[in-house]
C-alpha cells in the first residue's frame, strides 16, 4: 500500500495504445521509432501510429543540453500543408514513450521510385520535386530547420502527391540551434558546413533537397555513396558531378537549378528554397507548353478535328513532356553504391505503384495539369 501511495506519478497522462488502437500491422521502423497502421477506436479512422524510442530520443536531446529542444510532436503539430503528412494528436504510452497519431498515406516511399526509375517516376518527377520543395518552404516559414531531407522521408501517395513525413531531427531556426557542432542527418545528404561542424541554417535543407532532386533524375548521388567518413568528406573536397554528364538530355534550366543547390559554399547556393522551386516551376511550365504544342501539331498532322482533338492534345501532353525534357534515365546508367537506410524512417506500406487513374483535363498550365491523364 505504501509503495502505491509513494510511487512517482507520471509527468503526463499515459495511454494504453493496445486498448486505444487496433494495431493492424507494422509498416515502418527506423533507428528511433516504430510505425503501425492502426485504427483509432475513438475516431474510427485509419492512422499511422508512430511510437518514438524513449532511450534514443533522450540521447538525441542530450546533444542540445541546456537548450529547450522542441519535441517531434511540437514540430509536427505546427505544420499544415497538403504536402506534409498531417499529425492529429500526440501522447505518451504506458511505457512513457511519445506517440504521434498521423495521417496514413496509401502509397510508396520516394526512395523506392528513385531506385525503380519507372514510368511513374519519369512522368511525375517534376510534380514531386515541386511539391517537396513547397513542403520544405512551408517548413521554413514556420521557422524550422528539417536537417534530414532525403527520399526516405518522403511518401508518394496513390493520388500521385508527395508528403514530407519525418521531423525527428528538426530544430528551430534560431541562433542557439544554428551553432556549430551538431552533426545530425543522413550522411549522403549532408551539406559541407554541417560536416565541417560550422554554423548552419536553413540552407542545409536546400543542399539536401538538391541532392534529392539530383537522385530523382539520375538514380545516384552527386558523389560516391557516403558509407564512410572519407566518402562524406567528398562533399567538402570534390565538386559534385555535373548532372548533364549523367543525364545528357535533362532540361538546362532544371539542371542549373539543381547544381546551384549543390554549391559547397552556402552563400553561393540558393538562399531561399522558394527561389529554387520557382526556377523548377518555370521550367515545368515551359515544358508543358512545348508538350501541348507538339501534341497539337501531331493531332493536326493526322487530320483529327473537333472536340476529340483538344482532348487528345491534353491527354498526350505528359508523354510529350518527357520527350521535350529528354531526361529519361538510360537503361545502363552510371551508378554508384548507395548507403543503407540510416536514422529514423516513417515508412509505410511498400507496394507496387498503383496504376494511374484517369483524371479530368485542365487547360491551365499548372502542376495538376502537367501530368494529369
Strand order of the largest sheet: 1-5-6-4-3-2
Q: Mind summarizing the main beta sheet?
A: 6 strands, mixed
Write down the Rg.
22 Å
Strand content: 5-15%
Query: Roughly what is the average pLDDT, rounded to an integer?
Result: 82
Low-confidence stretches: 305-320, 327-373
Secondary-structure element series: HEHEEEHHEEEHHEEEEHHHHHHHHH
Count of discrete alpha- or pi-helical segments spanning 4 or more residues: 15
Shape: globular
- At CATH level 2, the architecture of the largest domain is Orthogonal Bundle
Distance between the terminal alpha carbons, to the nearest Å? 69 Å
CATH class of the largest domain: Mainly Alpha
Written description of the protein model:
- The chain has about 375 residues and is α+β, with helices and mostly antiparallel strands.
- The chain has 2 domains: about 10-105, Phosphorylase Kinase, domain 1; about 105-285 and about 320-370, Orthogonal Bundle (Transferase(Phosphotransferase), domain 1).
- It has helices at about 1-5, 15-20, 55-60, 70-75, 110-115, 120-140, 190-195, 205-220, 230, 235, 245, 250-260, 275-300, 305-325, 365-370; strands at about 15, 20-30, 35-40, 45-50, 85-95, 100-105, 105-110, 145, 155, 160-165, 170.
- The strands form 3 sheets. The chain has a 6-stranded mixed sheet.
- It is globular and about 70 Å long.
- The protein starts with a helix and ends with a helix.
- About 40% of the residues are buried.
- Residues about 305-320 and about 325-373 have low confidence and may be disordered.
Amino acid at each position: 500500500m505504501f509503495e502505491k501511495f509513494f510511487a512517482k506519478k507520471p509527468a503526463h497522462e499515459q495511454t494504453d495504445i493496445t486498448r486505444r488502437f487496433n494495431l493492424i500491422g507494422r509498416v515502418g521502423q527506423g533507428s528511433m521509432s516504430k510505425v503501425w497502421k492502426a485504427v483509432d477506436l475513438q475516431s474510427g479512422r485509419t492512422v499511422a501510429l508512430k511510437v518514438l524510442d524513449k532511450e534514443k530520443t533522450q540521447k538525441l536531446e542530450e546533444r542540445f543540453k541546456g537548450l529547450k529542444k522542441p519535441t517531434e510532436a511540437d514540430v509536427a503539430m505546427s505544420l499544415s500543408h497538403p504536402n506534409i503528412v498531417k499529425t492529429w494528436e500526440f501522447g505518451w504510452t504506458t511505457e512513457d514513450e511519445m506517440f504521434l497519431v498521423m495521417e496514413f498515406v496509401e502509397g510508396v516511399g520516394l526512395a523506392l521510385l528513385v531506385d525503380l526509375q519507372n514510368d511513374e517516376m519519369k512522368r511525375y518527377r517534376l510534380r514531386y520535386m515541386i511539391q517537396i520543395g513547397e513542403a520544405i518552404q512551408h517548413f521554413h516559414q514556420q521557422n524550422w530547420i528539417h536537417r534530414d531531407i532525403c527520399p526516405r522521408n518522403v511518401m508518394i501517395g496513390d493520388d500521385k502527391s508527395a508528403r514530407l513525413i519525418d521531423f525527428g531531427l528538426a530544430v528551430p531556426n534560431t541562433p542557439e540551434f544554428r551553432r556549430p557542432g551538431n552533426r545530425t542527418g543522413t550522411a549522403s545528404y549532408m551539406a559541407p558546413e554541417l560536416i565541417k561542424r560550422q554554423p548552419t541554417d536553413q540552407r542545409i535543407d536546400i543542399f539536401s533537397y538538391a541532392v534529392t532532386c539530383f537522385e530523382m533524375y539520375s538514380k545516384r548521388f552527386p558523389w560516391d555513396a557516403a558509407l564512410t567518413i572519407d566518402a562524406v568528406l567528398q562533399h567538402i573536397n570534390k565538386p559534385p558531378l555535373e548532372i548533364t554528364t549523367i543525364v545528357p538530355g535533362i532540361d538546362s534550366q532544371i539542371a542549373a537549378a539543381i547544381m546551384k543547390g549543390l554549391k559547397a559554399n552556402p552563400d553561393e547556393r540558393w538562399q531561399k528554397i522558394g527561389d529554387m522551386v520557382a526556377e523548377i516551376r518555370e521550367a515545368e511550365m515551359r515544358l508543358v507548353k512545348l508538350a501541348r504544342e507538339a501534341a497539337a501539331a501531331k493531332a493536326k498532322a493526322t487530320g483529327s478535328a473537333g472536340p476529340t482533338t483538344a482532348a487528345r492534345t491534353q491527354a498526350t501532353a505528359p508523354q510529350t513532356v518527357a520527350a521535350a525534357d529528354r531526361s529519361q534515365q538510360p537503361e545502363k546508367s552510371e551508378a554508384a553504391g548507395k548507403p543503407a537506410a540510416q536514422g529514423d524512417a516513417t515508412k509505410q506500406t511498400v507496394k507496387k505503384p498503383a496504376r494511374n487513374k484517369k483524371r479530368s483535363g485542365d487547360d491551365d498550365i499548372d502542376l495538376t495539369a502537367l501530368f494529369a491523364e
